[in-house]
Structures are given as C-alpha cells and as structure tokens.
Amino acid sequence: MNENKRVKLIGRIVWAVVALVATVFTLTDHLGFLGGDYRPVALFFTSWSVWLAAIAAVLSLVSVIKNDEKTPQYVILIKFCAIIMMIATFVISAFVLPDKIWKAAYWTPGSTFKHFLLPIITVADTVMYDEKGSYRVSYPFVSLIVPAGFWAAVITRFCLARTANGGALPASLWDAYYPYGFTNVDNGHSLAGLIRLLVIIMFALLAIGYGFYFAKKDYKRK
User: What SS3 state is found at 38?
Assistant: First the structure.
C-alpha cells in the first residue's frame, strides 16, 4: 500500500470510529443516560444524519480495505446524501439554534460528536478523497429524499396527533412530537412558518449539493 492510500485508510478509520461513536450517542442521549432525556430517537433529524453518515463511513472504509480502484457508485451516492444531511445538521445547530450553541450545557460529548466532529470529518473526507467526475447531476436532488421524507413524517405525525387531541397537543406531549422548539406549532410557531423555513433550507441544501457537484466535476472529460 502506497503512502496516499495509507493516509486515506487512516482517515477513513478515524471517520468510521467517530461515526460509530456518534451513533452510540444518538441512543444514549435520548434514553436517559449521560444526562440525556427520554425522547424517541428517530424523532431527531440529527439521528438520521448520523446513521446515514455511519453507513457511508463504513462502506467507504471497506472500499479502501478492498483496494477498489474506484469507489463503487452506490457508495458515492450514499456518501453524497450523508454529506448533505451532515451539513444540514451542522447549519441548524450553529445558526437555527444559536441560543443553545453558546451554552456550556450544549457541549456534551454526544452533541460535540453528532453536531460538529462528524459533519466536519465527513466533509473533509469528501473534499480530499472523492474522485473528480464521480457525482452525477441528479445527486443533489436525490440527496433531498431523506431530509424531505423526515420532515414530511414529523409534520404528518404531529398533525394527526393534534387532530386526535382536539386541534392542539397538550404540553405533556410536546416532547414526544416536536423534536425542536421551532417545530412546536402549539407554542408560538405556525405551521406555515415552519414549512416556509423548511423550503428555504431545502433550496439551500440543493444549492450546496450542486456546489459539491461542480467542485468535483471533471471538466476535462469529454
């Protein structure tokens, strides 16, 4: 194994380890351990982004271990989707929830691994090791399937629950249906405002996706 592949292998091992540690934290942080709370794990966007990144990290590591001449296309697609999810996780944590990020209590080991270390390492691996011309023009749109599906499921779930509870959820059920404060339409936020914010985020993610696409486009290929 040459020096470049050795460095790549070490980087992929670090990425996979960080991803797996973050995956463990998606469980422990919401099962009451390590200062977490008891909330549905799948209710959080961060959980899904971490799980997808972990799959991408493990598959990418396997590709290096197998000494693939080129990374399999399905791995590249999964990794591209994970990148977009990770960027969304980082951006929401840093800019949509700024009231939390500046509090010391926010910087738990789990939060640090999930919201910051894993996104940074995932993007770094992409920038350094994804081959030129490996992305297809459809990937930015495909990458929106998981985040769009997640938010559609969250909104549908709490809308059905609100209907079953006479049009509004009691405060005792908020934690079970609203993953984040800005999603709570029973506490000063509107459904229209939430959907508008999510549409803006989706367009931003699409733009970021095409940023990666054009950055890695092989302009020499005919």
Answer: strand
Identify the three-state secondary structure at position 31.
strand
Work out the number of other CB atoms within 10 angstroms of the CB of residue 9: 15
pTM of full prediction above 0.90: no
Residue entry with tokens 């990770």:
86
Q: Which of 7, 132, 121, 117 is nearest to 57 (CA)?
A: 121
Residue 42: per-residue pLDDT? 84
pLDDT of residue 95: 72
- In whole angstroms, what is the distance from residue 216 CA to residue 30 CA? 37
Is the pLDDT at 35 greater than 50? The verdict is: no
Which of 71, 67, 75, 60 lies closest to 2 in space, CA to CA? 67
Give the span between the Cα atoms of 115 and 101, in whole angstroms: 10
- Residue 69 and residue 77: Cα distance in Å, rounded? 17
162's tokens: 């609100």
Q: Which one-letter DSSP state was computed for residue 131?
A: P
Residue 219 is which amino acid? Y
Q: What is the pLDDT of residues 131-190, one digit of tens each?
A: 889 999 999 999 999 999 999 999 999 999 999 999 999 998 898 899 888 899 999 889
Answer yes or no: is pLDDT of 40 > 80: no
Q: Which tokens sit at 85?
A: 């999810």
The first and second tokens of residue 38, run together, are: 């008891």
**Inter-CA distances, 212 with 5, 139, 220, Å:** 23, 10, 17
Structure tokens at 147: 């985040």
What's the residue count for the chain?
222
